[in-house]
C-alpha cells in the first residue's frame, strides 16, 4: 500500500535511494540521505510516498510543487548538521567540491516548476507495477495540490527513460548537466 513517508522509514528509504539512484546525494552517503529525507518532512512543497510489502519499504517517490530554492530550504533547517556531513564526505572525496558548486549554481534550481525529484523501486521488486503505482500516487498528490503538469529530469544513460515514456511522459528537451546528457520530460494531468 502506498503511504506517506514518516520518520520511521527514513533508514529504509535512504538505503533504496543510495542503491538505486546514483548521483551526488547518494555519494554523500546514507547518513546524509537520511537527514535529507528527515528535514524534507518539514517542507510543505515536498512530498514523499513509499510502498511497503510485508512491513518492508520497497519503493519511494518524491515530488515538489516548486523547485525554487528547495534544496536551500532543506539545508537551512540544520546548516551545521548538513555542513558537517558534507565536510566528512569532502575529506575522502575532495574533487566533489566542483560538483557541489556546479549543482548549487545550476540555474534550473531557481525555477518555480513542479517536479518529480526521485522514484526508485528496490531491484528485486522492479517490473511488477510498483513504479507505476507510485507514479499514480504522485500524480494524484499533484492534482490535489492543483498542479496540472510537472517535469522530470532523467539522465540519458538511465533505463528509467523507457519507464517514463511508457507511463505517458513526453520528452520536452535535453541539456547538459554536470557533463552528462539529461532529458527533461513533462507529465500532464489527464
Ligand atoms: C524506473 C523504475 C522506478 C520503474 O519501476 P518499476 O516498478 O520497475 O516499473 P513498473 O513495473 O511499474 O513498470 C511500468 C511500465 O513501465 C515499463 N518499464 C519499466 N521499466 C522499464 C524500462 N527500464 N524500460 C522500458 N520500460 C520499462 C514496464 O514494462 C511497465 O509497462 P507495462 O505496464 O506496459 O508492462 C525502476 O526501474 C527503478 O527504480 N529504477 C532505478 C532508479 C531510477 O532510475 N529511477 C529514475 C531516476 S529519474
From TrEMBL:
InterPro entries: Acyl_CoA_acyltransferase, GNAT_dom
Protein name: N-acetyltransferase domain-containing protein
PROSITE patterns linked to this entry: GNAT (PS51186)
Example of a GO MF term: acyltransferase activity, transferring groups other than amino-acyl groups
N-acetyltransferase domain span: 1-190
Source domain of life: Bacteria
Endpoints of the signal sequence: none
Amino acid at each position: 500500500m502506498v503511504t506517506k513517508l514518516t520518520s520511521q522509514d527514513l533508514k529504509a528509504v535512504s538505503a533504496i535511494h543510495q542503491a538505486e539512484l546514483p548521483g551526488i546525494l547518494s555519494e554523500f552517503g546514507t547518513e546524509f540521505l537520511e537527514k535529507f529525507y528527515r528535514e524534507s518532512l518539514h517542507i510543505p512543497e515536498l512530498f514523499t510516498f513509499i510502498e511497503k510489502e510485508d512491513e518492508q519499504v520497497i519503493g519511494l517517490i518524491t515530488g515538489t510543487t516548486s523547485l525554487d530554492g528547495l534544496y536551500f530550504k532543506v539545508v537551512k533547517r540544520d546548516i551545521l548538521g548538513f555542513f558537517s556531513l558534507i565536510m566528512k564526505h569532502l575529506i575522502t572525496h575532495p574533487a566533489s567540491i566542483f560538483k557541489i558548486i556546479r549543482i548549487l549554481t545550476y540555474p534550473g534550481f531557481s525555477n518555480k516548476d513542479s517536479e518529480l525529484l526521485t522514484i526508485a523501486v528496490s531491484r528485486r521488486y522492479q517490473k511488477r507495477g510498483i513504479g507505476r503505482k507510485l507514479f499514480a500516487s504522485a500524480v494524484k498528490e499533484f492534482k490535489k495540490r492543483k498542479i496540472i503538469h510537472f517535469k522530470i529530469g532523467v539522465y540519458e544513460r538511465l533505463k528509467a527513460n523507457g519507464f517514463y515514456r511508457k507511463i505517458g511522459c513526453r520528452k520536452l528537451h535535453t541539456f547538459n548537466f554536470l557533463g552528462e546528457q539529461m532529458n527533461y520530460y513533462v507529465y500532464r494531468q489527464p
